[in-house]
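ok new one. same drill as before - structure tokens go in, u give me an amino acid for every spot. 252 of them this time. try not to just spam alanines like last time pls lmao
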């Protein structure tokens, strides 16, 4: 089989998720969390401070990027939660920042679930000796926990999350971080994703083959120039493309 290594995006490709960070209930809850530690915020004030800090950190990362507007910097979201404590004069170590971030994620997530056939596809590929990799624009403190909750944490040969690398798709440096670390030749690998710019254009820029799936989380965009294009979520069909056609007959 041509594709010895299969690289997957996560959210919108293997995992369906809906979060609402604009929910007033979320910010009431988060203001309570901060208040218990002595950081007094009104809900609206906390939301504004959070949004401002995210922007400041993203802008700071961009200004130190390797190549100006072409860079796609990524921040570590736990730093935002830590700074929110510090802004109110409360000392907060990394552990408290992470715990606060996890509360934020739980409170803002309306649902989190696998697309049908996701786990079965990963298992089938690994059973055939393929390298199965995750390359996702994601925050490590959120995603590593969610991989465990979904039963996916043991199904990848390696997990690459943008917040761990300070750069995100479609930046070629993020793709190369995986390819170089694992000594993967681009012509032996395929990227599977649901975003035409981040997943498909980024992968093509480093010489990877591509499979595009239009899912409910895909951006509103024209169908990209991928090697294979699926205009609806169907991981069984992805399995067929990747050489595990038995998923087409599986009851998933």
């Amino acid at each position: 089989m041509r594709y010895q290594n299969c690289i997957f995006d996560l959210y919108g490709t293997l995992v369906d998720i809906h979060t609402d960070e604009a929910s007033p209930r979320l910010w009431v809850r988060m203001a309570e969390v901060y208040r218990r530690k002595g950081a007094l915020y009104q809900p609206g004030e906390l939301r504004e401070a959070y949004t401002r800090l995210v922007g400041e950190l993203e802008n700071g990362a961009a200004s130190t990027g390797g190549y100006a507007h072409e860079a796609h910097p990524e921040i570590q979201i736990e730093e935002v939660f830590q700074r929110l404590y510090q802004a109110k004069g409360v000392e907060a170590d990394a552990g408290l920042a992470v715990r606060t971030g996890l509360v934020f994620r739980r409170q803002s997530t309306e649902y989190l679930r696998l697309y049908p056939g996701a786990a079965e596809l990963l298992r089938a590929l690994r059973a055939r000796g393929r390298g199965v990799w995750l390359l996702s624009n994601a925050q490590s403190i959120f995603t590593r926990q969610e991989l465990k909750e979904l039963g996916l944490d043991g199904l990848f040969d390696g997990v690459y999350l943008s917040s761990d690398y300070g750069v995100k798709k479609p930046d070629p440096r993020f793709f190369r971080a995986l390819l170089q670390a694992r000594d993967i030749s681009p012509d032996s690998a395929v990227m599977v994703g649901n975003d035409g710019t981040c997943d498909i254009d980024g992968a093509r820029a480093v010489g990877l083959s591509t499979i595009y799936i239009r899912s409910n989380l895909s951006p509103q965009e024209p169908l990209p120039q991928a090697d294979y294009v699926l205009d609806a979520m169907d991981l069984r069909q992805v399995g067929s493309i990747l050489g595990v056609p038995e998923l087409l007959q599986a009851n998933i």
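The chain has ten helices and eight strands. and btw Strands lie at 5-8, 15-19, 109-114, 131-136, 158-161, 189-193, 209-213, 228-230.
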